[in-house]
Design a protein that fits this description.
By secondary structure, this protein is α+β, with helices and mostly antiparallel strands. The protein has one domain. The chain has 5 helices and 2 strands; from the N terminus they run H-H-E-E-H-H-H.
Amino acid sequence: MVEPWATEYCTAIAEQRYGDAIYARYNIFGDIKDGMLTLWDCTDEGPYRERNITVYEQIMEDARGYYDGYQVLYQEALDFYSSNSPNDSRRDIIEALNNVMYNGSGF
């Protein structure tokens, strides 16, 4: 875990800033550079292909996967996030997670 993300994650949870906490969690291991995550996908031909994705896009990709596989748990998480603080600087993440729930994973 790297700073400032580890502290930001703990502080955001304590202050009920869940969008900030989610964003910090994706940054906590230090592999994000300038808001971008580099992924390596295997192609049908065998070689790996580099793919760059924003943290927000990865959060949404993961959210759609969780929604598809675990709808009851996904709803429980949204219920928990409903007490989100108005001081959360990443309320857009919580709103987007709700959109996945109400519009489906194709959103």
